Fold this sequence. Notes:
Helices cover about 35% and strands about 30% of the residues.
Amino acid sequence: MTLLIAGGAEDPNIETLVAAVRSAGLPHELALTSSEVCPVISWDLDTDELTVAGKPLRPTSAFLRPDVFSQLVSPTAATAQRSSAWSTTLAGWALSHPEVRVLNRKALTTSTNKLDVLVRARRCGLRIPETLVTNDPALVSSLRNGTIAKPVSGGVMPRTNNDSRDLTVADGATGAPAIMQRKLASPETRVYLVGSAVTAFRLRPSVLYSRASGPVNIEHWQSFEEDAEPVARACRQLAQSLEFDLAAADFKTDPETGELVFLEITSMPILSRFDLECGGQITKQILQWLTAVKPSAGLRRVQRRAS
């Protein structure tokens, strides 16, 4: 059994997992790129031989994470293209080997749609915010002040509907539809899912968006499954619906009822800070999943389709 860890050498999440692997004494190989170094990689499709830095590799499991940190250090088109090509190559190798355990195999070829995820979450029993998707300025203006405007396809920070009124209007419509949602309250909650395992955290003070800057106090919510069992159960159902083996779901609080309200789920969550707060629980769960013998339901479906 050998685990391949591929990603960015400057990625703290990769560093966290590598430290956990070494601490556990697991056989592993590293395939890491950085802003300065991109090892030689070759994959001969005729012989099916994969080599990295001249070393033949035949891992039984793989943890693959796109290298976005090298682009932060060296923000050039060449760095971005190199990182993308590297990730695509290893993803292609993993996809063509269904016997290799890979987290979120389906996510290697498909991206999630925010609107589909919201509907799925509601069907699984999670409460979602009051949501309107529109590019109608009149509708936007009629919403209560403080309504949050989020991009449908992601990529920029949320704004209030007051801010969205300065969008360019053509033929009675703004250029792009936006997700309009009621502003919610602190605290935020983040729920990690690794297979069937659930680990939750409270985030204080709240930030509007998970990638916002500023200090955040993270508290391991150890009694989450007892305190919010229906939410934990619904999170598992949502992850299974999306065929996510590793995910993190974000929630905020309804200021009137105190209920948790689902915001979004990601298949590429931050690991380092949260893993530290729970004493390495998340990386332990990841390694247990990657080194397990029995395939998950999602992997069995991939194998049946490949046969």
